[in-house]
Design a protein that fits this description.
about 300 residues; mainly alpha; two-stranded antiparallel ribbon; 10 helices; about 5% strand; globular
Amino acid sequence: MNAILKSELPAPPTGGATVVNFPVAADAGSAPPPARKPVAIARRGQPLARAVNLVLPPFVGLALVVLAWQLIATRNEAFPSPVVTFQQAMTLFADPFYYNSPNDQGIGWNVLASLKRVALGFGLAALVGIPLGFIIGRVKFVNGMFGPIVSLLKPVSPLAWLPIGLLVFKSADPAAIWSIFICSIWPMIINTAVGVQRVPQDYMNVARVLNLSEWKVLTRILLPSALPYILTGVRLAIGTAWLVIVAAEMLTGGVGIGFWVWDEWNNLNVANIIIAIVVIGVVGLLLEQALVALARALTHEQVAN
């Protein structure tokens, strides 16, 4: 409601008071809603815009990949099209755990066999690598002992370790686990050592003043401070372990997703190879995301993907 106020200016020649209308704050009960409607509409539109921004880019990227795939299949008759591969995947995943013989098993058994080897090799690497990283980061003399060795062996290709494993263990399965162990241990050692070395010196000074035991220094200061670095090393190591197992199983044979890929190549079944590539990628992504979630839960920090 507009209030009408009388001005104190001199009256015009025609006489009478000059009436000037001043718009003032409106009554709350009769507040015009137009000012709130756009805000409400905008707020309702934000989740939709976020959903579109979240879904649209991956969808467009996937569509481009499928389009390129279809173009390759059109020009090469031996290369299966996306439709043919999808139909083959439906057949394959209809019974992923069938078992006819040791060399004729479903893809589910092969993935489980590879995960078992990764769990063993990765677990052993964590048991050895994290304590060794603590010692290297804590003791300068040990750092000088092992630092050059770690720098020398870290860039070695994973497959270069496989013959050593075959020679030592005389069996394909332990040799594959050995390759996973030796290739995934380096990220854990390096990141743990760096995390221990970057503990603030003030913390160590306080521990020295309080005359804390080495065990309390380890559990109360070093471990909490270095935990984000340790988890980063673990996350890098699991990706390396999953890469190594596929290559190792291609050479060692037996049961496993790597051997399954090589066996399908020998059968010239390219559709199954493409399906295996997708399965390997999905499993690797799930493993990494599981460790990212663990890191966020333990460190209460934002962990970059």
